[in-house]
Amino acid sequence: MDRILVIGYGNTLRRDDGAGPEVARRIEALALPGVDTLEAHQLLPEHAELLSRVDRAIFIDASVGDCPEEIRMEPVAPDPDAGFDAHASDPGGMLALAQILFERAPKAWIIPLPAADLDIGEGLSATAEDAVEQAVKLITGFCKQQ
Amino acid sequence: MSKRIVIDPVTRIEGHAKISIFVDDAGAVTDAQFHVVEFRGFEKFCEGRMFWEMPAITARTCGICPVSHLLASSKASDEILSVKVPPVADKMRRLMNMGQIVQSHALSFFHLSAPDFLIGWDAPVAERNIVGIIRENPELARAGIRLRQFGQEIIELLGGKKVHPSWAVPGGVRSGLTAEGREHILAKLPEAFATTHAALDLFKGVIEKSPEEVETIGKFDSLFMGLVAEDGEWEHHGGLLRFSNSKGQIIADKISARDYQDHIGEAVQSSSYLKSPYYKPLGFPAGMYRVGPLARLNVCDFMGTQKADAELREYRHHWGGRAVTSCYLYHYARLIEILACLERIEILMDDPDLFSTHLRADAGVNSLRGVGVSEAPRGTLFHDYTVDENGVIQSVNMIIATGQNNLAMNRSVFEIARKYVTGPEIPEGVLNRVEHGIRNFDPCLSCSTHALGKMPMQLRLIGPGGTVLDEVTRDG
């Protein structure tokens, strides 16, 4: 059985920025076999080691860019030219770090979730809540197929 | 007529910021400002919450230093209870803070800063990163990541694996260290020491080969502030506040946290949401002071552990005695602090109180105000709460390290720009050096969101009337 890591990241005190961790939390509650979850405020260098130990990885992050109307998994590949900032490391960069440091990176996807409200506070907007529900269904279906 | 160079935002710091460099018609730098363009509203957000919740809430303001907020908040809450925390709880809080200092300093040195001075100031940004370090020195890069992991593991051994450990609580901590946790720490310490010594040797070699950077990457006079123990020993969680100056003289000493407002004023500038604290007796902006590793090493009399004291003596001998003033040596100071933490962690593992089960003092609201001070990796962190008789938060004042270094960061950028900017165009390598001038402080703006697609970087030279004369843009 493939080992899958679901990484939801964002700031849970900035409303929709916390959508990623919320997805990870809900996936963890489902206790899917072979699936580990990680809630993180942001991606950090040590996550590269976790990535190197799994076969599949799914990143979930709030996005202020153009999001497709339908929530979907977009493939992401190791990107050695990505930034490796403490606050701005992106999935491609983390995968590259895993590949370079630990000589193994999983096949990976990112699910961008539309963020409508990034104000200080807790709780998700209706837009983000709907996106979280769709993402959980999508990930659940994906994991069951593996 | 002044012209303005804008760097917006700075990469490899925590949060959003931009820098403006002002030059006159002759191309001479006249001023520099580090702007924080995102509003921190957490103080207001906390009003109306129960003070019991504050450690867990404030820890969530920052993904990089949650432990620092957790501990400062717990200390403020201890004061509201008016209790003395049990000895083992204080020791466990210290252990977690040292884990935080180790992991944060390791990240700053190996990942954020080393690319500049190891790969080269003028190297393309695509190479001047941790991948570049891996290519140049793969074992150093791996060791740096493992050192950071070690600090992170200490935090997790105490607080669990969740994002923000609500482990320290008013009156103490929820749980202590297990025997397995102690064994894990002891097993990892030798490599952590070896990595730290290797990094110290490496950085000493760097500054020996390029002493110019020590002089130009932010060397200037200022005051310094940090916690020290009663006997002047280096502190990171207890003790009292001390100010010293660039002559190495102590100008204010044994200041209790509760009295901080007698000594620290907070100026607000229209150009930045970041408050600019200053030493009150000297006024604003003459009361500029620095906090963090460089300042802590300047204000303390000694480190209190054998290896760190030997390093401190060497550092002071070569670079300024009791007043090391170059911001570039923040990196050096960070490494000495990592060493001090490792030695203290090692000593603590043999402490007879280590497995005591009396972890928390119980009480209700006994004081309507609580001030907690702790040394975050980046510098002194203040949490000041007032509550009503039911413990509902009425007001919050937080003074963060990056705020206290705000004036010094401006000054640092000014000194670098004055050296390297001489005309209306942006010279190659200036952006990197100016950025590094900020990164020396390892600033954390903490409240930033981290949503995809928000981190472009732009350097602009703006002439009179707002005309953009030159511009460099990087994608996030």
Description:
The complex is a heterodimer of chains A (146) and B (476). In chain A, strands 2-1-3-5-4 form a 5-stranded mixed β-sheet. The model of chain A has no long low-confidence stretch (mean pLDDT 88). Chain A is built from 4 helices and 5 strands. Chain A has a single domain (4-145), classed as Rossmann fold (3-Layer(aba) Sandwich), CATH 3.40.50.1450. In chain A, helix 1 packs across helix 4 (126-145). Chain A has helices at 19-30, 47-51, 91-102, 126-145, and strands spanning 4-9, 35-40, 56-63, 74-76, 107-114. Chain A has 146 residues and is an alpha/beta fold. Chain B has 476 residues and is an alpha+beta fold. Among the domains of chain B are: 3-38 and 406-474, no CATH class; 84-219 and 326-362, Cytochrome-c3 Hydrogenase, chain B (Orthogonal Bundle), CATH 1.10.645. Helix content of chain B is 42%, strand content 18%. Chain B contains 15 helices and 16 strands. In chain B, the strands form 5 sheets. Chain B has a 5-stranded antiparallel β-sheet with strand order 3-2-1-15-16. In chain B, a hairpin with a 5-residue loop joins strand 13 (379-387) and strand 14. In chain B, helix 5 packs across helix 6 (138-159), helix 6 (138-159) packs antiparallel against helix 7 and helix 11 packs antiparallel against helix 12 (330-348). The longest helix of chain B has 33 residues, at 87-119.
